[in-house]
């Protein structure tokens, strides 16, 4: 993993970020979404200070992580929902864990006390990754939405910062 660097995401990364996102969506086990958004839509939905990419020695984006606010209410200012995606060719190299660790450091430095996510139960690699990064399962939302014509459950995960009390 010495050849992998984490850096802030910028607009020059848009094509790779969206291609990696689409590759994840194409698996059918990453999201209810089926098509990656435009860069403008993606950019507007994510908090700018917590968008990171993992790059190799050639600065090729291998994966990304980003957060969105869960609510516009002030009481929830310290709660975000995250997404993490890795290029299929880079999976199994620890890229997602590096991204999550960097995200945790970034959000804690900003006073964010909870990172949450929803994962399809079939996405066992993501569930294992999150558990190892300190996330816990809150519960399962059963048949919460339809995806490709069938009802899907979502496992709710969260990581509470031990540093922010």
From TrEMBL:
Key word Acyltransferase present in the record? yes
A Pfam family this protein belongs to? Answer: Acetyltransf_1
Q: Which CDD domains match?
A: NAT_SF (cd04301)
What's the superkingdom here? Answer: Bacteria
Q: Where is the N-acetyltransferase domain?
A: 4-158
Do you know which Gene3D superfamilies this protein is assigned to?
3.40.630.30
Keyword presence, DNA damage: no
- Using the record, list the residue span of the signal peptide; answer none if the entry has no such feature: none
- Keyword annotations for this protein? Acyltransferase, Transferase
A single Gene Ontology MF term assigned here is: acyltransferase activity, transferring groups other than amino-acyl groups
UniProt protein name: N-acetyltransferase family protein
């Amino acid at each position: 993993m010495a050849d992998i660097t984490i850096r802030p995401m910028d607009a020059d990364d848009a094509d790779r970020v969206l291609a990696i996102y689409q590759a994840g969506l194409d698996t059918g086990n990453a999201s209810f979404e089926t098509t990656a958004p435009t860069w403008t839509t993606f950019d507007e939905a994510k908090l700018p200070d917590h968008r990171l990419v993992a790059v190799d020695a050639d600065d090729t984006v291998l994966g990304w992580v980003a957060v969105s606010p869960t609510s516009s209410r002030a009481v929830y200012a310290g709660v975000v929902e995250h997404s993490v995606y890795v290029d299929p060719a880079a999976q199994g190299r620890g890229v997602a864990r590096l991204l999550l660790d960097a995200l945790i450091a970034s959000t804690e430095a900003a006073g964010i006390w909870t990172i949450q996510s929803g994962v399809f139960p079939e996405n066992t690699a993501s569930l294992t990754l999150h558990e190892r990064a300190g996330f816990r399962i809150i519960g399962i939302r059963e048949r919460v939405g339809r995806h490709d014509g069938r009802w899907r459950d979502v496992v709710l995960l969260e990581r509470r910062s031990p540093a922010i009390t």
